[in-house]
Amino acid sequence: MESARVPAAEIRRLEEHLGYHFVQPALLLQALTHRSAAHERNGGRRARQSAAKRGVGSNERLEFMGDRVLGLLMAEWLLERFPDEQEGALGPRHAHLVSRTVLARIAQAMDLHAALDVAEHEARAGVRQTANVLADAVEAILGAIYLDGGLEPARGFVRRMWNDSIVAQAHPPKDPKTALQEWVLGRGLALPQYRVVSSDGPSHAPRFVIAVDVQGKTGQGVAGSKRAAESEAASDLLRQLGAERQATPTPDRKGHGQ
């Protein structure tokens, strides 16, 4: 079960934290493999495509699966926990709980960075500690658990790891763009302006980087739609301004809409 870059002891530690032992350990190893490591190991695009046909490679496909599984399981849990709330309140709760902010926080609680397989140059750049890489890996692990054991162990993982976050939601959170707008207007400042820093990725899975500036500070968000990336940028800036009000990023339905 040992990868050349992920020691067996680290895999065992992670499985204990997950509360799940993989029948197909290769799925967990793939969930921990950043695309830079897959590219480095497989020697470029053509080799990477051949590797994908053999069922190995980066964690991007598992991330895709985990994103969908998380959305379903979180919706199920919220309906169960808040039986009297309508969609207008449940939606912001759901968006917050599946946001990259919460995902990265869960990854940090698991010390997930220590188990990630990334290319050497990316490791030196500190990519293991970046919020987006950590969030992607949590989704990939959830996707791997679902494919390995089905919905029940996936549900158990979500309810263990997200319990503190859902308990902390005494009230539905506020959309961060709205919260940021209220913050600047309350101080007589100009409305925040959002700008596209970059956009890349295939048409079915785009990735947008959006920035927003207020009072010399810049918030940045990365997501699969402009709307969701703007929301993440506003949330990042609110944290920097010390004005976070339990704001929740807009749901990122990857590749759907802008």
From TrEMBL:
Residues 11-150 form the RNase III domain. This is Ribonuclease 3. One of its GO terms (cellular component) is cytoplasm. It catalyses: Endonucleolytic cleavage to 5'-phosphomonoester. One of its GO terms (biological process) is tRNA processing. Residues 175-243 form the DRBM domain. Keywords: Cytoplasm, Endonuclease, Hydrolase, Magnesium, Metal-binding, mRNA processing, Nuclease, RNA-binding, rRNA processing, rRNA-binding, tRNA processing. Residues 220-258 are annotated as: Disordered. It is found in: Cytoplasm. Coiled coil: none annotated. Belongs to the ribonuclease III family. HAMAP family: RNase_III. Digests double-stranded RNA. Involved in the processing of primary rRNA transcript to yield the immediate precursors to the large and small rRNAs (23S and 16S). Processes some mRNAs, and tRNAs when they are encoded in the rRNA operon. Processes pre-crRNA and tracrRNA of type II CRISPR loci if present in the organism. CDD domains: DSRM_RNAse_III_family, RIBOc. Its main location: cytoplasm. Mg(2+) binds at E63, D136, E139. One of its GO terms (molecular function) is double-stranded RNA binding. Its cofactor is Mg(2+). It comes from the Bacteria. Its EC number is 3.1.26.3. InterPro entries: dsRBD_dom, RNase_III, RNase_III_dom, RNase_III_sf. Homodimer. It is an enzyme of class 3 (hydrolase). The active site is at D67, E139. SMART domains: DSRM, RIBOc.
